[in-house]
Design a protein that fits this description.
alpha/beta, binds glutamine, seven-stranded mixed beta sheet
């Protein structure tokens, strides 16, 4: 089977899915260990038997709905290539908005040696993006799932990031006596009964990383209530949240005594990130 034929066949197999042709290219480029440009440059190259078998197996998995990021075991986020596993959420492009907001804030501080905590770090995406951009900062990523802690540690090593480390912790439980200049979190925030959980890639992601009580706000409330004792004066607390939770998270932060609270939209023009500063 030649590359061009393989891609046409796969796109047909995946028809009706979200992005048949892109999925086919991403999976084939991964199997060949090449860039997507290579696929266009060498359409006549033939897949060997092992590559063909692997491609057929991957296409079958995708046809069953498995996320491409789990099938190929990686996903790009920010400037980084991250390993993924079904232990954690797949990094989303919208989460880069949170990273941008934190970098804007960090660049306005007088000190560059900031201490940063990422709660519910998953693949380590946020922690590692911040650590890579802020080489003088020291980043602690925590996750309740041991599998996530191992994965994030592996991602730090694979991206040669030395100023981030990861620990197992139930939110703040393992962080006694530590204080931070920035606490960030992309916690679970989807309503438990949301029909969205039965759609597309999210069906394959861990529920514990997605849902948080009937209104999706249980974990955000817990973090806001606990955060002050872990924050330095003037420190930043930032959340990613649901498109319809901006006003609620704003109010929760303001009620807890945070100031300069603001909500920022994602690339789809939805409220997605809310920030507040501790006094
Ligand atoms: N943003 C994710 C989604 O919409 C949800 C992530 C989360 O709950 N933290 O699928």
């Amino acid at each position: 089977m030649r590359i061009n034929n393989a891609l046409t066949w796969a796109a047909e197999q995946l028809e009706g899915g979200e992005s048949p042709s892109i999925d086919a290219k991403v999976m084939l480029a991964n199997i060949l260990g090449k860039s997507q440009t290579y696929l266009f440059t060498w359409p006549d190259k033939t897949l060997d038997a092992a590559q063909k078998a692997q491609f057929e197996a991957d296409v079958a998995k995708r046809k069953r709905g498995e996320p491409v990021a789990y099938i190929i075991g990686k996903r790009d986020f920010w400037t980084l290539s991250l390993f993924t596993s079904p232990d954690t959420l797949i990094p989303r492009p919208d989460t880069e908005v949170l990273v941008e907001q934190v970098l804007n804030w960090a660049n306005q501080q007088s000190s560059a040696s900031l201490s940063i905590c990422d709660l519910g770090t998953g693949t380590g995406a946020i922690a590692l993006a911040l650590a890579s951009e802020l080489p003088e900062a020291s980043v602690t990523g925590v996750d309740y799932q041991v599998g996530a802690v191992k994965l994030a540690t592996r991602n730090a090593q694979a991206n040669s990031i030395a100023n981030a480390h990861f620990v197992q912790s139930d939110w703040f439980s393992a962080l006694a006596c530590q204080t931070f200049d920035i606490i960030v979190s992309n916690p679970p925030y989807i309503e438990e009964s949301s029909p969205y959980l039965n759609e597309g890639d999210v069906r394959f992601e861990p529920k514990t990383a997605l849902t948080s009580g009937s209104d999706g706000l249980d974990d955000i409330k817990h973090i806001i209530n606990s955060a002050p004792q872990y924050l330095n004066k003037g420190a930043l607390l930032v959340f990613e949240h649901g498109f319809d939770q901006g006003a609620a998270v704003n109010a929760l932060l303001a009620d807890a005594g945070f100031v300069d609270v603001k909500t920022v939209k994602d690339y789809g023009d939805n409220d997605r990130v809310t920030l507040g500063q501790w006094q």
